[in-house]
Amino acid sequence: MPALRPGYRRFEFHALKDKIPGSDPAQVPAAATISFYRLGATNRTAATITPSDPDPTIVTVDDPGSIQVGDQLAVGGSNLARFIVNSVLPPTSTDPPRLAISAITSMTLVGGERFIRLASQLTVFKDPYGLLSFGTSVICDAATGRAFAYVAEPRFDYTMSGGGGDPAGIS
Predict the structure, then answer these.
(1) pTM score, two decimals?
(2) Is the dihedral of CA 44, 155, 11, 141 positive or negative?
(3) Which residues of 78-106 are buried (b: 16+ CB within 10 A; e: fewer)?
(4) What average pLDDT is seen over the chain?
(5) Is the CB of residue 125 less than 8 Å from the CB of residue 8?
(6) Cβ neighbours, 10 Å, residue 9
(7) What CA–CA distance (Å, rounded) separates 52 from 107?
(8) At residue 81, does pLDDT exceed 90?
(9) Staple partner for 37: which of 5, 85, 157, 168, CB 3.0–4.6 Å?
C-alpha cells in the first residue's frame, strides 16, 4: 500500500484587536471565528440597489470565481448586505465579466468589495491529508489569536467574526 501524501494547503490566521477600542489602538490577540467559503468575486462597480428595483443591476467583477446563478452573496463579511445572482455574464472582447444581481436588502456597493458565496462553505481539516475535519470554520485561540486549517481549494474566501480587523479576505 502506498504511503499517504499531504494534499491540502495549510492556512494560518492571526486575529488581533485594539487593546481598548476607541482609546488604545495597541494590537492584542483576539478570539475570532474564521469561516471558509468557495471563491466569490471582487466587485468593481459603484451602485445603490434596493429590493424594489424592477430590473437586476449589472455589476463588473474581476473574475466571477465559482459564482453560479441563484447564489446568495453577501458583501464582505456583512450579514446585512445580501443579494441574489440572476446571471453570470462572461467577458467579451469589449466587456469584462459581470453579474446581474437583485438585492435582498438595500445597499450601496463600492469598488473593491468581496462578494462572498454564503451557501457554499468549505470543509477544512486539522491535518494535511484531509482525514480529521474541523467543519466549515475554526476558532482562533484567545491567548494567541492564532488558528490554522488545511484546505483542499487552491483559492477561497474567508470571513472573520469576533476579534478585530477586516471581516473578510481571500486566500
Answers:
(1) 0.85
(2) positive
(3) eeebbbebbebbeeeeeeebbbbbbbbee
(4) 88
(5) yes
(6) 15
(7) 12
(8) no
(9) 157
Strand partners, 84: 72, 102
Grid cell in block for residue 115? 462578494
Contact 160, 58 (CB under 8 A): no
CA separation for the pair 75, 117 (Å, rounded): 9
Sign of CA dihedral 166, 14, 164, 83: positive
Per the structure block, which three cell numbers stand in for 87?
A: 446571471
Q: What is the pLDDT of residues 142-169, one digit of tens each?
A: 999 999 999 999 999 998 887 665 566 6
CA distances from 103 to 28, 112, 130, 132 (A): 37, 18, 37, 38
Q: Do 82 and 102 meet the contact criterion of CB atoms below 8 Å apart?
A: no
CA 28 to chain centre: 24
**pLDDT at position 93, please?**
92
Amino acid identity of residue 153, one-letter, is E
Are 166 and 160 in contact by the 8 Å Cβ rule? The answer is: yes
